[in-house]
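Field log, afternoon session.

UNIT: design team B
ACTIVITY: writing a sequence onto a fixed backbone
BACKBONE:
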């Protein structure tokens, strides 16, 4: 009998804000679309640990990473099943922003953008996920999504 159980890959990222409520988006060097800091969970690592590690590796900073905002079940015919976690990175201080470096070469830039621009800037599934994460942040909740949409 074939094993039909899902074997999802997990990834985790952080949602960061500036002091006027705009979101931090990064420019990866390995793909053409904007993203948030984060990456895949490694074996033996929790999603929260992966988020902390990825932020440190990609941005060279160690901000406090808070609570889970979103868990998104996102199967994809090309990339396989994924579960994507977005954690609360809070507001980045000027001091932390001044220490950002792209030491691992995965990113080339960052900028803050209003939430209202996400649909224009991001692939649809990421825009949906991040807008749900902003709503969860504002409400003090955690959201479960499938394909970026609340269930």
């Amino acid at each position: 009998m074939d094993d039909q159980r899902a074997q999802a890959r997990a990834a985790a990222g952080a949602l960061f804000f500036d002091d006027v409520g705009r979101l931090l988006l990064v420019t990866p060097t390995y793909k053409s679309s904007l993203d948030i800091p984060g990456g895949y969970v490694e074996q033996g690592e929790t999603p929260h640990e992966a988020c902390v590690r990825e932020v440190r590796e990609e941005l060279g900073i160690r901000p406090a990473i808070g609570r889970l905002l979103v868990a998104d079940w996102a199967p994809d015919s090309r990339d396989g099943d994924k579960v994507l976690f977005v954690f609360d990175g809070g507001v980045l201080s000027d001091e932390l922003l001044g220490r950002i470096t792209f030491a691992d070469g995965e990113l080339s830039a960052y900028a803050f953008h209003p939430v209202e621009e996400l649909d224009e800037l991001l692939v649809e599934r990421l825009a949906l996920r991040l807008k749900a994460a902003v709503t969860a942040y504002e409400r003090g909740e955690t959201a479960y999504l499938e394909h970026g949409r609340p269930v």
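LOG NOTE: The CA atoms of residues 59 and 100 lie 5 Å apart.
NEXT ACTIVITY: expression trials, pending approval
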